[in-house]
Amino acid sequence: MYEPIRTKSVHSLAGTADDFPHRSREEELNIQLAGHLSALLAVTDELGLDAAAESIAGQIARLRGAPPARHAGLTGADPAALHRRALALAGRALVVAASRADTAAAILSAERMDAHTAALHEPHESHGPRLVGAR
User: Fold this and answer.
1) Which are the contacts of 75, defined by CB distance < 8 A and separation ≥ 6?
2) Contacts from 49-55 at CB under 8 Å and sequence distance 24+?
3) What is the CA radius of gyration of the chain?
4) What is the spatial distance between Cα 38 and Cα 68, in angstroms, rounded to a whole number?
5) Separation CA 135–CA 131 (nearest Å)
6) Per-residue pLDDT of the chain (135 residues; tens, 9 = 90+)
7) Closest to 120 (Cα-Cα) out of 67, 47, 36
8) Which of these, 43, 66, 35, lies nearest to 112 by C-alpha position?
9) Which among 112, 120, 99 is positioned nearest to 44, based on CA atoms?
C-alpha cells in the first residue's frame, strides 16, 4: 500500500562514521609528542643549547619521518623564564612519551627536565657574587 522511501530522510544524520579519517590512539599520541618536542626545540634553540637541540631534533625526525623546521627568531625573553617554559614542555613530553611507551623520548625529556631544573637553581654569574642579606 505504501511505497518504500528511496531517498534519505531529512531527519537522518548528516554523515556516517566513515565520512572523515580516524586516527588511532597511538597516532594521536605520536602527534602530541612531536608537538611538545617541537615546542621544546624552539625554546632550546633560543637558549642556545645546540647539543640538546640536535638531540631533540633527532627525536622529532624519528617521530615525524622528516627533520623539523627550525626557526632562528629570538624573543629576547629572560633566560630563567625560558628555562621554566622548557621545563614545563619537557614535562609534558615526558608524560606523553611514557603513555606511548617511547623509552628514547622519555629519557630525553627527563634529561632535559633535569638540565633546566639545574639551570634554574644555579646562581647567575651576570649578577656577581650575592651578599648575605642583600636584595
Assistant:
1) 46
2) 49/115, 52/112, 52/115, 55/108
3) 24
4) 7
5) 8
6) 667 666 666 665 655 555 667 888 888 999 999 999 999 999 999 998 999 999 999 999 999 999 998 876 777 789 999 999 999 999 999 999 999 999 999 999 999 999 999 999 987 554 444 434 444
7) 47
8) 43
9) 112
- Helix (DSSP H) and strand (DSSP E) numbers for the chain: 4, 0
Decide if 51 contacts 108 (C-beta within 8 A). Answer: no
Residue in this structure with the C-alpha cell 646562581, named with its chain if needed:
123
Verdict on whether the full-model pTM lies above 0.85: no
For residue 131, what pLDDT is reported?
39
Burial (0-12, 13-18, 19+ Cβ within 10 Å), 128:
exposed
What is the signed CA dihedral for 58, 63, 67, 68, rounded to 10 degrees? Answer: -100
Instruction: Report how far residue 20's alpha carbon sits from residue 22's, in angstroms, rounded to the nearest whole number.
Output: 7
